[in-house]
Amino acid sequence: MRSIPYAGQIRGVVFVAALASLPSFNLAHWSINIAVFTLMFAVMSSAWNLFGGFTGYPSLGHAAFFGIGAYTLGLWFEHHAVTTGYEPFLMLPLVGLFAGLIGVVLGAIALRTRADVFAIVTITLLFVVQTLAFNLRGLTHGAQGLALPIPPFAAATFERPFYYVLVALLAATMAITYLTMRSKLGLSLAAVRADEDKARGVGVRTLGVKLLTFSVSVGITAMVGGIWAYYESFIYPQFAIDPLITIGMVLMTFLGGRGTLWGPVIGALILETAQQTLAYELGGSEYYLIAYALVFLLVMLLMPQGIVPSIQSVVRRRRRRAVVDAPGPPPSASSSDRTDVLTRDAVVVEGPR
Amino acid sequence: MHALIQGLILGVLTAGVYALMASGQTLIFGVMKVVNLAQGAMVILSAYLAYGLFTSFGVDPLLAIPVTTVAMFILGVAVQLAFLRPLHDEDRSELSLLVTFAVALLIEGFMSVTWRTTDRSINTSYANSSWSVGGYQITLVRLWAFLLSIAALGVLLLLLNRTRFGRAIRATVQNPESARLLGVESNRVSAIGFGLGTATAAAAGSIYGLLYPFNPGSHYDLISRLLSIVVLGGLGSIAGAIVGALIVSTSSAVVAATISPAWSEMTFFVILILVLLLRPQGIFGTTGRGAI
Amino acid sequence: MSFRVRLHSKFSALAVVTAVALLIAGCASSNSSSGSASSTQPLVIGASVSLTGDFADSGKAVQRGYQLWADTVNANGGILGRKVQLKIVDDASSPTQVVTNYQNLINKDHVDLTFGPFSTLLTIPASQVAKRYGYAFLAPAGGGPDVFAQNLDNFFFVQPAPTIKSGDVFADYILSLSKADRPKTAAYVELDDPFSAPIAENIRARFEAAGIKTVYKQVYPSETQDLSSVMAAVAAKKPDVIVGGTQSEDAYSQVKSLVQLKYNPAFMYQSNGANSPLEFPKNVGPQNTAGIFSSADWYPGSKASGSAAFTSAYIAKYGGSAQTVDDSSAEAYAVGQVLQEEAAKTGKIDNATIIKTLHSGTWPTILGNLSWSANGAPNGSFNLVQWQGGKLVPVYPPSVAQAQPVFPKPNWGG
Question: I want to staple A219 with a disulfide (CB 3.0 to 4.6 A). Which of A96, A163, C88, C170 is the partner?
């Protein structure tokens, strides 16, 4: 695997190119629409994974930043005109930066705690932000909701700008993840996850690396929130700051495999398309929630590590068996076992094989 | 001033039922190091069970408590055996959040199928009785709810302090390793500890159903409150759960009465964040092992 | 060895790309099917309602209303000879799902017409999708001010008046009383929600202009379980009239708290919750309903066009009695009625004709006569209903009244 140094990059480029070329197949609106929502969750679970997956801190508050992004964009364009329709997209980096800065402040508070308590503090932050969105009526219009400009795109190609922006954002997020995994930062994060006290003991600047990834992670989440708000064209506090959005991000990451490059993307592809399609095709059954919960439980019990690591370990086992069966050099000499040791510790150097 | 005192009375009376739910929650954490996100759903499920017994057989919700407690104890043990025990130790704390959330969804789905999604209230003959004491209103239901919660808490504490099994639980909370060396079967303790935690939800559910209208989605509001209480008090501490419940419900009742209900939820979230800034482990929490 | 590894890595990357491509190819191929309809084909109408989640029961009531109308029409030979076929999908009260659902209905299943969603907060994103593809959008719920602020020409709110004006009939009634009978002081307790607080605020503006003094006003968020401290503050001010901008659960809590506080105002109005003939007495106790006012468009025993037929058909299909018919079902049924009359009048049933035709004239429905302004806001008004003898009866305006309004309000428990 390590003998082909550019395999990861090539795979990434092919994936992004394939995604970017999809609209030129003249897809129906409804399928691009589903792709838009799926990409939103692919970006968000990748962003969640960047912090939650690598450090092991289960943040349940990311939806607060989704909402901050949605409201920041909405409030800005309450006072600024939209003519070409692309202005909101150009504002996104500022939205991300703004939310990232808020993330540094809130992260500094929340990161004083660990594990379960951190999960609860972050979900508390989420409710605080939601309450503020409801109660600061002068600013947010509270429960009455906030109208955004209607995107002036032609009906025939209405979804495309949203789609391309999301593909670009997904590419950026995956590139950040990839670079993090290959850098000293990735090692520091893995050390935090394995044993934080020991990591600090050996000189890892734990608070610094945690804060940095947290603010990048929530900044990206906020950018998706902005895109979502513009796409929906009207937002309410309970939808923009919804615990179920965080739950979705966490679930997709866990399903695909936390601490991996491709896991969150695969998790989002499966879950979001399944949810959007199934709710439409089979919705209305009272048993929907029960079925959803049961599938959820089964996945957790059968694949606690997620799809990508589970496939990896199956592949590894097969390979070992093949090595034992085949005449040749002893298994310890194979290069693959070296990567095994690394993946075991969640320092996943490569994506899925 | 009048509003302030009225709010205080209300807050203290309501604190009882929250202390009860939260002590179950914190017990489960103490024994298993699992945050049970299904605790709220279990409270609402018990409220529905009490509602069912009341509307079908005319059983008073407070008299139904022994029945619902047994039912919820069995359910709790079953959930622990089926979904939590199979998890590996190393990722139990992360995965248990998701697993118990899925259990909450499962219960919510079951409740919407069985009782539909309209609001239900349990209207007993005494539901609207109240006294006026020195110009302050005290409703009979709230007084009952308070006394009964205290009684149930008392029973729980007796179980933990005076029985052999209770001592096994406390030993596990304080130090699982040495408890195991002393011959405590940790699997059994975990299962029964989880069951006890959900059994307190049963008692709390009957009382909750008397106080408020509820629907299958009510557990979302409840769980965020419960989590704040147990974290505020310190995860794993029953004394902490009681103090946390008092702080949360009096502060929100006082703010609702004197300023506006719009800011009452916010108040205890802010208190929570401030406390955690000073003591990340909560008021009664210990940095090392837990203690009940 | 290394060959196997590379094969695997390539295979998995390929698998992902192929899976995506296949998915999309499947989508693209179904895009080519055309949606043209001849007159013998069924008339397919799509709608997304909340069949799961918090609003599932009201969502199902809407579904029953749509279905009852379709059955009634089909029993009489359909619309312009075309059988009506409904496609009702679930949005689980999610703003994301509702966009997907209308996208799918319009561009995947090529339905001929769309009806509006329930729940109310989803109406705006849904109406935008319909507007983009030139679909008329007849909505039985979600008539908040922001919907009309969009100025969509394809949008028609099928209720007698915009939601925020539904309480105006109570103000009309109170201000029609003689100076001596009129309340002098008022308290307003409002749920923070686009369909509740604004109703009470509208009444407050009218009352204040007429010299009725506001002694208390409070807005509470939807997750407030405990209204007893708020209601205690209300009772302490001893207002003559209590105006509740309520939804459901909170309406019950307000009443229960007042009963416990033993405070009985001369007039009490609740915008919603109190107008449910079935749920309200169940939750507050039938003895505590007497004298409470609310607003309604349809109510049991309504004399509006087709109401008797609707009621008997409803009972025949779903059982129960007139008292158990949800007004959401009636509003959904009225949507169908409007469509039917449009077809009868123009002889055509397509989106452009519907949009053009409904902007003028009045349209008799079981909710009364409806008409719309350019932005889809209805021009009529609601009816005032009051609980009398354990039943909900229309009492104002006199043209629809079946009994005299009772005041002052009888004491709790009687």
Answer: A96
Query: Which residues from A are below 8 Å from B97, CB to CB?
Result: 58, 60, 116, 119
Residue given tokens 């017409």 in the structure block: C113
- Closest by Cβ to A128, choosing from B262, B266, B282: B266
Residue ranges per structural domain of chain C: 43-162+303-370, 165-297+383-396
**Distance in Å from the first CA to the final CA of chain A:** 8
Q: Which helix (H) or strand (E) holds C189?
A: strand C185-191
B162 interface with A at CB cutoff 8 Å: no
Rounded Cα distance, C154 and C356, in Å: 9
Q: Which residues have a Cβ under 8 Å from the Cβ of C1 and sit 6 or more positions away?
A: A319, A322, A323, A326, A328, A334, A336
pTM for the full predicted model: 0.87
Residue pair A63/A237 in contact (Cβ under 8 Å)? The answer is no
Q: Which domain holds residue B28?
A: 14-115+125-219
- Backbone torsions φ then ψ of C352, nearest 5 degrees: -60, -45
CB within 8 Å of C270: residues ≥ 6 apart: C244, C246, C251, C254, C255, C292, C293, C294
CATH number of the C43-162+303-370 domain: 3.40.50.2300
CA A64 to chain centre: 14
Contact A1 C9 (CB under 8 A): yes
Residue range B112-132, pLDDT digits in tens: 888 887 788 888 888 778 887
Give the torsion through C-alpha atoms of C85, C91, C93, C94, to 10 deg.
-150
Residues on chain A touching B45 (C-beta within 8 angstroms): none
How do residues A121-160 score in pLDDT, each as one tens digit?
898 889 889 989 999 988 999 989 999 999 999 998 899 9
B3 interaction partners in chain C (CB closer than 8 Å): 229, 232-233, 236
